[in-house]
Write a structure and sequence with these properties.
Elements lengths: L28 E3 L1 H19 L6 H24 E3 L14 E7 L4 E8 L10 E3 L3 H6 L7 E5 L4 E6 L6 E2 L3
Parallel strand pairs: 1-2, 4-5
Antiparallel strand pairs: 3-4, 3-7, 3-8, 6-7
Helix pairs in contact: 1-2
């Protein structure tokens, strides 16, 4: 039957689900093992939420299930495309995916520590930056004692990779 012959009240609302973190087409979805574990835990949480839904109104239940299913589909696609990087196989003397690095910001004289992680793991407040971020791109392949320059619209910001700290490949 054509949708033209369906009562307006019977039409299903298409759930609006915010997209996951941006991953440009053709870019491999690298993740740490911790990141993969977080994605799998998120998937399990959504499956449990769907199974344990306590909504008495059938229409509200159907809408809620559709919303969870849409989120699950995005998440399952991300998990299927994920490539776990074994951090112990990464070089220990230069910055690569998974490295935790301490930087001195020359203009501010402050020190910050970041780990370079996958797009789904990135959270600046936890010191985790995406491997696609401009800062991570400036740091990749650098070594302790090197400087990395991040070109900003009004200035070039220089980061010194502290020589007295090790480039640690692993989780913060």
């Amino acid at each position: 039957m054509s949708r033209g012959f369906v009562k307006e009240d019977d039409q299903e609302d298409i759930p609006m689900v915010p997209p996951r973190a941006d991953l440009p087409p053709g870019v491999t979805n690298y993740v740490t093992q911790v990141g993969m574990n977080e994605l799998l835990a998120e998937k399990q949480m959504l499956v449990d939420e769907r199974s344990n839904m306590n909504v008495s109104n059938e229409n509200e239940r159907r809408i809620a299930v559709n919303h969870i299913n849409a989120k699950l589909q995005l998440l399952e696609n991300r998990i299927a495309e994920a490539k776990v990087v074994n951090l112990s196989e990464q070089p220990q003397n230069e910055i690569r995916f998974g490295a935790t690095v301490t930087l001195k910001i020359s203009a501010a004289k402050s020190v910050q520590t970041f780990q370079i992680v996958g797009v789904d793991e990135a959270n600046v407040s936890k010191g985790k930056i995406s491997f696609l971020s401009p800062l991570a791109k400036a740091l990749i392949n650098k070594k302790a004692g090197d400087k990395a320059t991040l070109k900003l619209p009004r200035e070039d910001r220089v980061f010194e990779i502290l020589g007295d700290s090790e480039i640690v490949v692993g989780e913060i």
